[in-house]
């Protein structure tokens, strides 16, 4: 355990040391309805901005009437602390505040009552922070409307009664604040003020939005001052933006170039203007900048590059696998971790993907090649005759493999097969290696003698006519084995059933038992594990976005003596604030190398069969009870020495694609505290999640984001611009739906105009990742997906 944390600490220290002194840039922003909180993006050149944290929030808002986090403004103090203010509501008279040393862990959120003394004030919008070095003082300024207070301006009907001016307070410690005063009072309605220091002229530039609505202005203008204490002239420049509505300016100097980024909120995209003469003249460069999809009003600011590299190193490890996988179980044999699960294809439960075994040496970098189950065409729809004599069609499916066990050099897999006619059972398969190939352990094998897989016209599943010729161990799903210290085997399956296994692990011994649990209702995905002489039985409750995991404890045997633990018996449930919905059907993995218990589980995804595998560490109290596990996207990380130490050039490349799939939004009602004492229930709240499919996501080191081409794109491709010529040795492509197989062609170019093929996969291959070697010198790489799902979870690029 200590070795792992020491390695991580040294890695972060190395990052901070290697890059110290160089500059990079961060952008704080919000997305969607602003309830999910703070988002960050980074850039090295001011043009190409990539999301951090897998595009997920760093901080969920908790103050204000509406608990929003709009317009987050961040300023770094001389001591390195990051201070942030934000809009907490459309109608609040307070603004939100928090601080952080690393932009990951934040202080308790506070409400600064900047306008509470003005009972008629309508709002406190878009607060901004600016640190004045000469006076060592922070200025916080924002827009407020106070009816009748200022010169009236004509307004449209939709903005009637709104006439904003900029107010401010000062502070040196964010504990005491000056009285609120007027900061900027021009002869127009003004919002969204933002200040940047001119590094050449040593004065201050403020960009504001002219908010007049009748006739509409909705543009950005500039004013300057030598000293902030003397205020800014109310005579402003002509508009620096074009004939579109713009708001939320974020000025940033990148070297001697001044950019002003802004929200083209009617166009649902971000834009930018640029000045090469310190604000004298401006050009629109909106077509040259790229931002994360859905970005809204925020702040751009320069930091030491070590801050960005540390944020990138402090990555999230959930989801664990770059694919849609459910019902996970993990076993370790030798120096390799093996993950077994249900392959999801977003077709619902009526069809599943090809089963595969994912392998890893370090618990972070996972791969597979081919399937461990042969003899099935998982994509073929078979016809059968039901009990009513009706002709129907269906698919063979492989579900919920239990943890693989080893005995006498053989590996036993207990997994559910569902036949086209929906008959299902748990079967025993055996192999000479943990990654297969596996064969049916009972019966004559996969096929009826001499008949092959398909039967004749009498029907696929008629007795003795083909199909699966092995009898099921259990005529039900979710078989999960457990081997006790004395070598006795047991198996558990859905609806709280359990039985002893025969010594050869192929049959049940004795009558099955039904485990009585304090919480009732449908249950599946059982788990049995043992720790310090205590047997733990885990069973699921509810389902979908409201999956929860309860448990019982026994000190007698794996089949008897189970009792409800003291305290909370539901130890895992949804954590919307951590972006985790419906942690369901999982498994416990004990890692001897780190002496840790890890719970692997499926996460709801977008609903249906879009699930992914998550993993989090389990903790126990002194009496053996399980501490409440709050699931998160941080995950587990490395459990062994990292197997990939090369620099991934993709992390600093710019990506663009032939098309991008339209965003997908899920709205669900989640029970947030189901672990209340019986018979109480938790509260239910509605949450929204939107997945986007941008090209930049292929280089964010997240298995939860991906680029996908539009459904109408008949010739999908994605391009990497490395920004300089590099000598490329290898590319790794983690395709979406990799179990369905892909073919592809990779091209390279020095100038982005003249291309030559440098690698090609012409035959459909089922694996992840696909690898291209020996590419050579190139600045641009372009990947054409010829067959298979048109999407990538990750694209890794390595240099010779």
Automatic annotation (TrEMBL):
Keyword RNA-binding attached: no
Keywords: Glycosidase, Hydrolase
Record-annotated site: Important for catalytic activity, responsible for pKa modulation of the active site Glu and correct orientation of both the proton donor and substrate: 478
Pfam families with a match to the protein in the record: F5_F8_type_C, Glyco_hydro_43
Protein's UniProt name: Family 43 glycosylhydrolase
Any coiled-coil regions, as ranges: none
Any one GO BP annotation for this protein: carbohydrate metabolic process
Pathway assigned in UniProt: Glycan metabolism; L-arabinan degradation
Gene Ontology terms for molecular function: hydrolase activity, hydrolyzing O-glycosyl compounds
């Amino acid at each position: 355990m200590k070795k792992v944390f020491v390695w991580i600490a040294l890695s972060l220290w190395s990052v901070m040391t290697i890059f110290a002194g160089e500059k990079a840039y961060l952008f704080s922003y919000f997305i969607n309805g602003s309830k999910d909180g703070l988002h960050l993006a980074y850039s090295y050149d001011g043009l190409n901005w990539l999301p951090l944290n897998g595009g997920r929030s760093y901080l969920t808002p908790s103050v204000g009437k509406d608990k929003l986090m709009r317009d987050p403004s961040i300023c770094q103090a001389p001591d390195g602390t990051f201070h942030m203010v934000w809009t907490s509501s459309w109608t609040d008279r307070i603004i939100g505040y928090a601080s952080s040393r690393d932009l990951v862990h934040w202080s308790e959120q506070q409400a600064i009552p900047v306008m509470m003394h003005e009972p008629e004030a309508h709002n406190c919008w878009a607060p901004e922070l600016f640190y004045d070095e000469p006076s060592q003082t922070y200025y916080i300024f924002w827009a407020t409307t106070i009816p009748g207070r200022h010169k009236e301006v004509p307004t449209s009907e939709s903005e009637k009664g709104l006439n904003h001016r900029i107010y401010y307070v000062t502070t040196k410690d964010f504990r005491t604040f000056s009285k609120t005063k007027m900061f900027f009072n021009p002869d127009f309605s003004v919002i969204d003020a933002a200040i940047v220091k001119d590094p050449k002229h040593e004065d201050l530039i403020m960009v504001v939005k002219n908010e007049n609505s009748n006739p509409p202005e909705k543009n950005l203008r500039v004013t300057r001052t030598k000293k902030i204490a003397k205020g800014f002239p109310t005579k402003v420049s002509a508009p620096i933006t074009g004939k579109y509505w713009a708001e939320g300016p974020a000025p940033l100097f990148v070297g001697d170039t001044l950019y002003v980024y802004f929200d083209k909120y009617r166009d649902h995209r971000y834009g930018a203007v640029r000045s090469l003469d310190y604000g004298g003249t401006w050009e629109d460069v909106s077509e040259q900048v790229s931002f994360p999809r859905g970005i809204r009003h925020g702040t751009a600011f320069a930091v030491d590059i070590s801050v960005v590299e540390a944020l990138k190193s402090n990555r999230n490890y959930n989801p664990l696998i770059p694919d849609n996988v459910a019902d996970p179980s993990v076993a370790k044999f030798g120096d390799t971790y093996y993950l077994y699960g249900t392959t999801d294809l977003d077709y619902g439960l009526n069809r599943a993907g090809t089963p595969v075994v994912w392998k890893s040496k370090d618990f972070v970098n996972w791969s597979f090649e081919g399937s461990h189950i042969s003899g099935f065409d998982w994509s073929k729809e078979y016809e059968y005759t039901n009990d009513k004599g009706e002709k129907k069609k269906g698919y063979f499916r492989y579900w919920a493999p239990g943890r693989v066990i080893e005995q006498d050099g053989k590996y036993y897999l207990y997994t559910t097969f569902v036949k086209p006619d929906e008959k299902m059972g748990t079967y025993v398969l055996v192999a000479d290696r943990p990654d297969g190939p596996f064969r049916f352990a009972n019966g004559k094998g996969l096929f009826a003698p001499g008949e092959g897989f398909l039967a004749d016209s009498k029907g696929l599943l008629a007795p003795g006519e083909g199909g699966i010729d092995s009898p099921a161990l259990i005529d039900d799903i979710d078989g999960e084995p457990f081997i006790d210290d004395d070598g006795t085997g047991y198996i558990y399956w859905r609806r709280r059933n359990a039985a002893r296994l025969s010594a050869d692990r192929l049959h049940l011994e004795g009558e099955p038992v039904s485990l009585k649990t304090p919480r009732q209702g449908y249950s599946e995905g059982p788990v049995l594990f043992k720790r310090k002489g205590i047997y733990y039985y885990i069973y699921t409750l509810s389902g979908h976005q409201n999956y929860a995991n309860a448990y019982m404890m026994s000190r007698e045997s794996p089949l008897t003596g189970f009792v409800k633990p003291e305290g909370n018996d539901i130890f895992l449930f949804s954590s919307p604030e951590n972006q985790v919905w419906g942690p369901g059907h999982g498994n416990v993995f004990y890692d001897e190398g780190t002496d840790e218990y890890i719970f692997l589980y499926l996460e709801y995804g977008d609903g249906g069969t879009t699930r992914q595998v998550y993993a989090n560490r389990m903790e126990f109290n002194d009496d053996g009870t399980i501490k409440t596990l709050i699931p998160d996207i941080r995950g587990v990380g490395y459990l062994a020495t990292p197997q990939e130490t090369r620099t991934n050039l993709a992390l600093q490349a710019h990506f663009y694609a032939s098309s991008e799939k339209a965003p997908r939004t899920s709205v669900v009602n989640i029970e947030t505290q189901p672990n209340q004492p019986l018979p109480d229930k938790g509260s239910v709240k509605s949450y929204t999640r939107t997945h986007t499919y941008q090209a930049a996501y292929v280089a964010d080191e997240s298995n939860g984001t991906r680029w996908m081409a539009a459904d109408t794109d008949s010739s999908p491709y994605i391009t990497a611009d490395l920004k300089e010529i590099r000598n490329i040795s290898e590319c790794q492509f983690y395709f979406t739906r990799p179990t369905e197989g892909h073919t592809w062609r990779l091209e390279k170019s020095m100038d982005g105009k003249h291309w030559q093929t440098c690698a090609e996969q012409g035959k459909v291959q089922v694996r992840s990742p696909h690898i291209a070697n020996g590419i050579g010198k190139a600045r641009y790489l372009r990947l054409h997906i010829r067959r298979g799902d048109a999407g990538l979870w990750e694209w890794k690029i390595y240099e010779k």
